[in-house]
Design goal:
Layout: E1 2-7, H1 10-15, E2 20-26, H2 35-46, E3 56-60, E4 69-76, H3 80-93, E5 101-105, H4 112-126, E6 143-148, H5 151-176, H6 184-198, E7 201-205, H7 207-213, H8 216-222, E8 230-237, E9 246-250, E10 252-256, H9 276-291, E11 296-306, E12 318-320, E13 326-328, H10 336-346, E14 354-359, H11 363-369, E15 374-378, H12 381-393, E16 398-400, E17 418-419, H13 427-436, E18 444-448, E19 454-455, E20 461-462, H14 467-476
Parallel strand pairs: 1-6, 2-4, 2-5, 5-6, 9-11, 9-14, 10-11, 13-17, 14-18, 15-16
Antiparallel strand pairs: 3-4, 7-8, 8-11, 12-13, 15-18, 19-20
Bound molecules: ligand BES, manganese (II) ion (MN) and zinc ion.
Residues 256, 274, 331, 333-336, 360-364, 366, 421, 427, 450 line the site of ligand BES.
């Protein structure tokens, strides 16, 4: 979808040619002398409309307004959340109209956060999955113009929001694909295509190369599937090569049957979304390609299926991870941490300024936080604060969870260095404690997006989260990342 930012007040909006005009009316709304103002004032006076959140009024062929359809949407206090909800409702109400060109008039006092919210809400609401439908229908909206008083003021926020929206759409599109399409091989191809389109470096490793790296834990998970595993490495360079990169790691389980510890049948189809972390890393790179911020970013995606055939790994099996730590598998359904741990060890070679892994890791996180906030775990308070703030700004929020060492005690094994599961209690945290064992060499954070990466039920589908959070985080990190410490021979390593 095409987004543009334009200087237009209500008077200009009335004359603008488009298929539908959405007017966000906040509590601070003041009437002007134009046709849009007259429509709003009339509706308010008649009691047919209020500037309150949730209120919506559609009008057709209003006097003096060029757009045939007008939707008034109550924006309450004009906060980002209210703008997001109002745009969502307005765009949803236009779904059957086949409108191609949309003009959205933001309240006069709209700030950057309102601009971001309007862009993300429009993109989110108008997205329609068509990839595997025989008759692709419903993708009508092509061009969206945001009318604001001073476009220059909002240009940076707008450009970032537009790039994030494209990244979110890309992530949703990939994650929504059925598991017989979105195989590890396909994810590798998507990464390659992205790299070609945007000038990223890209390597896609197969079983032989991964074996050579000693990723025994990752390889164990792939054993029960006929689909060959892939390990994807994407590199975006926007700053000097000497600058330490941020490494993003995405869980790429393209189908999680549970393996020998097989899952129950109901809703097992949703385990195609178990590559949501991987899709979010790809989507974030899509946004980096548009935005080209001044920093370096590496994306790592370990990808395979978790299936139960005769060659599958079993409860009781012990494997040696790339880090050298041996792992006793007590439950083959706790496979995400087994593929991530080797990627986290691989990340060390980049001497990263921070590593953030994204994974649909635990059902326990869904129980803890539901579908509203992603679980955030971090060994570094600054990194945690930055990610949390980015989530708030992007309306893609997360919530910090604890990592006390006591939570790791249940992972003890009589036969290996560590077991892959602890008890049922605090399952999201014990999973994070498992990962933490592999992250000692850099500041690390983990986002458990099991509850937020997709929706179930009638609205079943990928959300593209946490691409919004990650893009906001990376944009905010430009220039802030310390250079890789250059240690010349004979000099002391500078303190961190
Ligand atoms: N992919 C699942 C996590 C998941 C479960 C995401 C439900 C969304 C909804 C993960 O691989 C898994 O199966 N985790 C197990 C861990 C358990 C065996 C310790 C879980 O959460 O049940
Ligand atoms: Mn699993
Ligand atoms: Zn899984």
């Amino acid at each position: 979808m095409d987004f543009e930012l334009k200087t237009l007040g209500p008077a200009g909006a009335a004359g603008e040619k488009c298929d539908a005009l959405v007017v966000l009316v906040g509590e601070l709304w003041r009437p002007g002398k134009d046709a849009v103002s007259a429509l709003v004032a009339g509706a308010l006076k008649a009691g047919d409309f209020e500037p309150k959140p949730g209120r919506l009024l559609q009008a057709y062929r209003s006097a003096g307004i060029a757009a045939p359809r007008v939707v008034l949407a109550g924006a309450g206090d004009g906060s980002a959340r209210r703008i997001h909800a109002a745009v969502q409702a307005a765009v949803a109400s236009l779904r059957t109209s086949k409108a191609k060109r949309l003009l959205i008039v933001l309240p006069a006092n709209a700030g950057d956060e309102a601009v971001r919210a309007a862009v993300s809400a429009t993109a989110e609401t108008s997205y329609v999955y068509v990839a595997t439908k025989s008759k692709p229908e419903g993708r009508e909206l092509q061009r969206v113009t945001l009318a604001v008083a001073d476009p220059k003021k909002h240009q940076a926020a707008f450009t970032a929001a537009r790039a994030a929206a494209n990244g979110i759409e890309f992530a949703r599109e990939v994650a929504n694909l059925p598991p017989n399409h979105a195989t590890p091989t396909r994810l590798g191809e998507e990464a390659r295509k992205l790299a070609k389109a945007h000038g990223f470096q890209c390597e896609v490793l197969g079983p032989k190369e991964v074996a050579k790296l000693g990723m025994g834990s990752f390889m164990a998970v792939a054993k029960g599937s006929d689909e060959p595993l892939r390990f994807i490495v994407l590199k975006y360079q926007g700053a000097a090569a000497s600058q330490a990169p941020v490494v993003l790691v995405g869980k790429g389980i393209t189908f999680d049957s549970g393996g020998i510890s097989i899952k129950p049948s109901p809703e097992m189809d949703e385990m195609k979304f178990d590559m949501g972390g991987a899709a979010s890393v790809l989507g974030t790179f899509r946004a980096l390609g548009d935005l080209r911020p001044a920093l370096n970013v590496v994306g790592l995606i370990p990808s395979c299926e978790n299936m139960p055939d005769g060659g599958a790994f079993k409860p009781g099996d012990i494997f040696t991870s790339m880090s050298g730590q041996t792992i006793e598998v007590l439950n083959t359904d706790a496979e995400g941490r087994l593929i991530l741990c080797d990627a986290l060890t691989y990340a060390e070679r980049f001497k990263p300024s921070a590593v953030v892994d994204v994974a649909t890791l635990t059902g326990a996180c869904v129980i803890a936080l539901g579908g509203v906030r992603s679980g955030l775990f971090a060994s570094d308070d600054t990194l945690a604060a930055d990610l949390q703030a980015a989530g708030e700004a992007a309306l893609d929020p997360c919530w910090r969870m604890p990592l006390d060492d006591e939570y790791g005690e249940g992972l003890k094994s009589n036969f290996a260095d560590v077991a892959n599961v602890a008890g049922r209690q605090g399952g999201a945290i014990t999973a994070a404690k498992f990962l933490q064992r592999f992250t000692g060499k850099y500041p690390w954070a983990h986002l458990d997006v099991a509850g937020t990466a997709w929706k179930s039920g009638a609205a079943k589908g990928s959300t593209g989260r946490p691409v919004g959070l990650l893009v906001q985080f990376l944009v905010g990190r430009q220039g802030a990342a310390p250079a890789k410490a250059k240690v010349a021979k004979g000099t002391r390593k500078p303190a961190a």
